[in-house]
Amino acid sequence: MAQQEGAQQEGRQPPQHQNTQPGHQDAMTPQPSSARTEYRGSGKLRDKVALITGGDSGIGRAVALHFAREGAKVGIVYLSEDEDAEETRRLVTHEGQPCTVVRGDVGDEETCRRAVARMVEEHGRIDILVNNAGEQHPQKSLEDITAEQLERTFRTNIFAYFFMAKAALPHMKEGGAIINTTSVTAYKGSPMLLDYSSTKGAIVSFTRSLALSLAERGIRVNGVAPGPIWTPLIPSTFPEDKVEKFGSDVPLKRAGQPDEVAPSFVFLASADSSYMSGQVLHPNGGSVVNG
């Protein structure tokens, strides 16, 4: 315990690794922080209906909890992490809001249609869409990235954003909001995450273009570009030594927590950001990206 606390104080995590992606939050040490107890909702999203991909853990879970605390009805889509998804459901309902849970691969367009149909069946509409699910597979060289990996990464990280928006838009009205999770790697690049960084750059362009496309309909589209955040994707992606040092290279010298990112989504989903569209927020630990 003392070793674990010392590592955290130095901006490090205890060495750990998970063998399957996108990883399980319940297996992480320490557990990511999903919602600070001092965060008090003020009804910013009262009676709104929000659908969040990758909502079982990490940033997605934190967004679900913050939205619920602000009064939104929540739905989450997840791949296969049943226990994490059930915990998110428990936490959301503890906030007094319903939580629809849909299992499936968002890289498959039919999953996206099914998730939207469930939300519309239960709530009649969608006010907020959060495209957040993602995966990454480090490789030392471009030559090591197979066609299968390339297609898989693009299908999850950007095809799914198209699929979800396409399915949700017929059920969104003026005042709706779409928020896309991109990454600091879209702006800084990453030599070992060539395909992942490319998808995140595509998300930035998708966000800007869709914002222009939907402006006349009164639907705003923005993005969030997190830096190093302590989520299940980290121990399920990197070896133990890299996990231990994860986040220590940013100006704030530590990895961020999901509940340090979720308020950016609340802002972009609420009327507080009513004059913003086509923009990206950067909760990244102090890295200046000029993007």
Automatic annotation (TrEMBL):
Name the record gives this protein: NAD(P)-dependent dehydrogenase (Short-subunit alcohol dehydrogenase family)
Which UniProt keywords are present, listed alphabetically?
Oxidoreductase
Sequence similarity: Belongs to the short-chain dehydrogenases/reductases (SDR) family.
Query: What range(s) does the Ketoreductase domain occupy?
Result: 48-233
Q: Bias category Polar residues: which stretches?
A: 17-36
Q: Which Gene3D superfamilies match?
A: NAD(P)-binding Rossmann-like Domain (3.40.50.720)
Biased region (Low complexity) positions are 1-16
Spell out the residue ranges making up region: Disordered: 1-42
